[in-house]
Amino acid sequence: MDVGGGVWSVPVPIPGNPLGYTLVYAIESPGGPVLVDAGWNHPDAWLALTDGLAAVGMDVADVRGVVVTHYHPDHSGLAGQVRERSGAWIAMHEADIALVKLFRDVVTDGTHKDFQSDMLRRAGADSHEVAEAVAMRPEPPALPDLALTDRDLIDLPGRRLRTIWTPGHSPGHICLHLEDADRLFTGDHVLPDITPHIGIYPYDRSDVDPLGDFMTSLERVREFGPIEALPAHEARFADVSSRAAEICSHHEEKLEHLRALMAADPQPRTIWELAARMTWNRPWDQLPAMLRGMAAGEAAAHLRTLEVRDVIERTADAPVRFVIHS
């Protein structure tokens, strides 16, 4: 789709995922197109990307670079193949590059299953749930060439595309402000109808607050005002500021629901127990193992924010338990 101003969107499928596709954006420049994200690493996705670019007169071999909004496989997966075909650079925020390096190391040395199993057990998952969850793991993405930091300008001749660091969905998630057209590529940070997954991994970390970071990042995006958003899923939409405010309110409501749930049953509970009592898009016992793991990560993020706000505290038990302040 021609979204105007020398920007094109290509829907790249995510096999077996209810999101359906990742919107990869191609930005024209005199030095060749730069892609925002690349899509999932799968033959069908590669065909969709290359055919989609060809349909608007672009050859993947001419791609100048790929800016990855975050390391997740539906955004970074095909970046390595684009680089192999074109010689393009791959850019990502330095915080997510650190995670890519970590994932590549643990996959190489075979410790990733032990790491994941231990994380799930410490959260309170039983042995059957652990075995199911560790069976699924996508391959890590290609290692980027360029490390980005907040406010960096992207190598895009004749245009101004600036990095806006928006941690939360991942530690190094970025939005990209196309300053010459005043539009914002939002990745997964701000989507028109759904909210991105915000989790903590390992679940029991006490040195980070990704939900707090996410909500601070949403406030930063609100400062752009009612400009058009070009997200990585669903469809482009007007007024990124209003949507960011709605997402902030959604998480405040979720935090209050979790606080009330804990107040109604004030005994110490594990992350897994509390996740099972929270409201998801389907009942807990109908969630497959991978989605239970993600739900536990999101529960952990909300618990951590309540802890930072001094509403709850963790006990010294193993697995870790949380209790509301009396």
TrEMBL record:
CDD domains (UniProt xref): TTHA1429-like_MBL-fold
Keyword Metal-binding: no
GO molecular function terms listed in the Swiss-Prot or TrEMBL record: hydrolase activity
Organism: Acrocarpospora corrugata
UniProt keywords, alphabetically: Hydrolase
Protein name as annotated: MBL fold hydrolase
Keyword Ligase: no
SUPFAM superfamilies recorded: Metallo-hydrolase/oxidoreductase (SSF56281)
Metallo-beta-lactamase domain mapped to chain residues: 21-233
InterPro entries hit by this protein: Metallo-B-lactamas (IPR001279), RibonucZ/Hydroxyglut_hydro (IPR036866), Sec-metab_biosynth-thioest (IPR050662), WH-like_DNA-bd_sf (IPR036388)
